[in-house]
Design a protein that fits this description.
Layout (H helix, E strand, L loop, with lengths): L5 E3 H5 L3 H17 L4 E3 L5 H15 L3 H5 L11 E3 L17 E3 L26 H18 L1
Length: 147
């Protein structure tokens, strides 16, 4: 495969059953064939997307020993950095050849849910990393309530 499959979220959100079916089939095929997909027609504005990509690239360009400071095995990949080989596909023993960062739910300390959600991990080396990640995450949460 030479190109990453791309789907348009607006197809799924439309009232047109043909467009919805097209989206479902395309995303299903992409995940079945290669395991990921590019999403367009989402709710993030281009400026935020560019800033998010910039921050993410800077993080993943940090030395491995620096990135590992932000890995917390007790959280099972639910916050912070997860290094190569830590996750694996269902039914496989070999670790995945990927590393990733996970932002999660933001709750205030006085929230009744504060004990259920661990705090997000802050990256000291990149002052904008967490602010940009939080903005993107919270935009996503706002959109869920609009659907």
């Amino acid at each position: 495969m030479q190109n990453i499959p791309s789907v348009d979220l607006r197809d799924f959100l439309s009232n047109d059953p043909i467009r919805k079916e097209k989206f479902v089939n395309e995303i299903g095929s992409a995940f079945e064939d290669i395991g990921f997909v590019a999403l367009k027609g989402h709710f993030l504005d281009q400026e935020l997307v560019e800033e998010l990509y910039s921050e993410i690239k800077q993080f993943f360009n940090l030395p491995l020993e620096t990135k590992r400071k932000y890995e917390n095995p007790e959280l099972g990949g639910q916050r912070g950095y997860v290094s190569f080989g830590k996750e694996h596909a269902k039914g496989r023993k070999e670790g995945d050849l990927k590393e990733f960062w996970h932002f999660g739910q933001y709750v205030s300390e006085d929230s009744k849910y504060s004990t259920e959600y661990p705090q997000n991990i802050s990256v000291d080396e990149l002052p904008r990393f967490n602010a940009v990640g939080k903005e993107a995450y919270q935009m996503q949460k706002k959109q869920e309530f609009m659907f």
